[in-house]
Write a structure and sequence with these properties.
Distance between the termini: 128 Å
Shape: rod-shaped
Order of helices and strands: HH
Structural class: mainly alpha
Number of helices: 2
Radius of gyration: 40 Å
Number of strands: 0
Largest sheet: none
């Protein structure tokens, strides 16, 4: 048979569990964050910048290497006297 002391300890134990939140050990884990949604604008902008850099590199190399678009065209040397 349970004594008053045992019943008192059990009641006080449950009161402490309720007040201090000891029962949170059985709660479910928080839901994960939603996956970020991309509307494609960042991808389009990245492709545009990449194409811009390719065009800039081609232009730079064309000027740097002195590429002549018309091979039949002859360049006259001008000599200063």
């Amino acid at each position: 048979m349970m004594t008053f002391r045992t019943i008192g300890v059990v009641v006080i134990s449950f009161m402490f569990m309720a007040v201090f939140g000891v029962n949170h050990a059985q709660e479910l884990a928080p839901a994960p964050a939603p996956f970020p949604v991309n509307d494609g604008a960042a991808i389009d902008q990245g492709v545009a910048y990449l194409l811009l850099l390719v065009a800039l590199a081609i232009t730079y190399l064309g000027v740097k290497l002195d590429v002549r678009w018309n091979e039949n065209e002859k360049v006259n040397d001008v000599t200063h006297t």
